[in-house]
Amino acid sequence: MLLAVPALLGYAYYLGMYAAPAEASMGDVQRIFYYHVPSAWTAFLCFFANFAASVAYLANRGKRADALAVAAAEVGVVFCSVVLVTGPLWARPVWGIWWTWDARLTSTLILWLIYVSYLLLRKVSTGGQTPVLAAALAVFGFLDVPIVYLSIRFFRTQHPQPVIAGGEGSGLDPMMAKALLVNWLAFLVFAGLVLALRYRLERLRQRVEESRALRAEELPVGSCGLEAQPAVSGRSA
Amino acid sequence: MSAVLQASPEHTMRVPRMSAVLWATLEKDLRLEWRSKDAINSMLFFALLVAVVFSFSFDPTAEESRRIAGGLIWVAFLFAAVVALNQAWARELRHRVLDAYRVSPAPANALFLAKALAGFLFVSVLEALVAPLFMVFYNLRPLGPVWELALVAPLGTWALVVNGTFFAAISLRTRSREVMLPLILFPVSIPALYAMVSATTAIFSGSAAPGYWIKLLGVYDVVFTTVCLLLFETVLNAE
Amino acid sequence: MIKFLYLAYAVTWLIHLAYLAVLGQGFKRVKEELRELEEKNR
Fold it and tell me: Residue A200 sits in which domain range?
């Protein structure tokens, strides 16, 4: 099962690099798109998972929900970073600029900032109620996403129009579409694996926390304050 | 035994009404601030600093100044708002008032709204004082509908203050809380900031209609005020 | 121009491998802590 992941990724790489035809206007550089676009979709799915887990946590305070929330946020940030790095690496040779404030790149950057701030809050917050506070922030962050899209839709868009990059139907060569989808599947499965690992790590950390908390609460033998005081004896508590 | 346990009618606890708590808290905050002028002074200073520094670092033509002043003004107001927000809960913390609030039957949202309204008033006063200064420094003569600024300013300010008050409560239990507040506030506020800057620039330069941005600010305000009200009690009890 | 393509792929995997390494460290540490607690309980 574990081997399936690199195998799938390898196949996806082959498709993206060789099997798919070179793009008409950009040439081979366009192949970055097979990593860039699936990473973006995966990141977004992770952030949605973080939102769902945070809401679940606020509802029932389950530790598993909290573990999933932090794991999803971290993996999402990792994939989002990939998008933000591969984007400029694609833009530079094609349009001659590293960065532009176009709609998609900007909203991805904002998303990255929001979830990095979430992770920072988790790191820097003291006291046992961090999960609750972080979950609240996560709700704000995710609800911001549609508003970000509303505010940015009028940006000048340098991004390749859906014909090439969006995969939204029209004009995408079938071999390219296949390469894109296989890459997406491969990254999705990979993300699932990494997410599972991070989740397990968090659950282990929770166990350590619990053990520590329990030991801190243990009273030394003999000093239990719940013993009934004899009516007459002058024994002090 | 049962005689002792029965509550007598005149001693049953009445839950104070939301509006009563709200006005009482708001009035208390405003009064305390009026006496010390802590927040307003530091805010004013910050805003002034930004206005002056930006003013002599760029030397814009009339046309340019209309295009950049919107962004610069809101940067100044944003910094000032953060100063105000950072000490929004400081007084409560100092005197352990938050514990009293948690225990009292008063609705938590009343406390939140009072804090947010107080902050809103402070920042609005500051804006009223500093905006003319900007007009002077940049020799601004707005070409668009200036009255619409009266819509943009409160909507934009509320957007910053409502989330800021909430996040200030979240940052209370963090190391370096004064840094954490802007850190978690800014990313979430970016669309609102973009909207208020765009609206202001549109009004100054007269180039486009600010209507879309004003509506977007309205949507932002409604969405996030609702979320804040829904989640504040949870956050207050979590501290 | 094509070097950007290779660079992009390389950096992608660099980022992923770096994160996996961080996770690896995390696991090592947590296993140690669990072992310590086991021993204290004995």
Answer: 4-210
Reported as half-sphere exposure (CB side, CA atoms, 13 A), residue B136 has a value of: 8
φ, ψ at A23 (rounded to 5°): -75, 145
- Suggest the residue from A112, A137, A145 to mutate for an interface test with chain B (most B CBs closer than 10 A): A137
**Contact yes or no for A42/A191 (Cβ under 8 A):** yes
Backbone angles phi, psi at A169, to 5 degrees: 90, -105
Q: Which two tokens stand for residue B135?
A: 């007009």
Residues B189-200 pLDDT 10s: 999 999 999 999
Check B170 against A120: CB less than 8 A apart: no
Mutate to test the interface with A, among B112, B188, B235 (most CBs of A within 10 A): B188
Q: Is residue A218 part of a domain?
A: no
* A150 contact B CB<8A: yes
User: pTM for the complete prediction?
Assistant: 0.85
State the alpha helices, DSSP H only, in chain B.
Answer: 2-5, 18-36, 38-57, 62-86, 90-94, 97-103, 108-137, 149-170, 177-205, 211-238
What ipTM describes this predicted complex? 0.91
CA A234 to chain CA mean position, Å: 63
Q: At what angle do helices B149-170 and A130-152 cross, to 10 degrees?
A: 160
